[in-house]
Specification:
The chain has 4 helices and 6 strands, in the order βαααβββαββ. The protein is α+β, with helices and mostly antiparallel strands and about 120 residues long. Strands 1, 2, 3, 4, 5 and 6 form a 6-stranded antiparallel sheet that branches.
Length: about 120
């Protein structure tokens, strides 16, 4: 079993970006730039977000990405909570990024970064 520690939230920056977009200060192609792999990860590994896309109001997905030098080729991949639990048990603490993705318009934003570590 793992727990999340050391959370770094990007919600304030997200709200600023959304506000600036709606004010016409940020072009749509600067914020709706999710590539094929990110959209595919959202489709196959993501969970529905509680909030709609701030650009097109479609249902978004939240994807969890894992990062650690100890993961080798598995670093920078989308993983479920069950998979994260197995990875943490195998290699120890890892960084997990929560990214919201709109599969319709391509909006994507890093919501938060946390450390997943074994529960002691």
């Amino acid at each position: 079993m793992f727990g999340y520690t050391h959370e770094l939230s990007h919600e304030w920056e997200r709200r600023t970006t959304v506000r600036d977009f709606h004010a016409g200060l940020v072009p749509i192609d600067a914020i709706c730039d999710a590539d094929f792999l990110l959209k595919a990860a959202a489709e196959h590994h993501g969970a529905d977000s509680e909030r709609p896309c701030p650009v097109c109001e479609s249902t978004m997905r939240v994807v969890t990405w894992v990062h650690s030098e100890r993961l080798g080729r598995r670093t920078n991949t989308a993983r479920s909570e069950e998979e994260i639990d197995r990875l943490v048990a195998e290699v120890g603490p890892i960084t997990v990024h929560f990214v919201e993705v709109c599969r319709h318009c391509g909006w994507n934003y890093l919501l938060k970064e946390v450390t997943a570590a074994p529960v002691v």
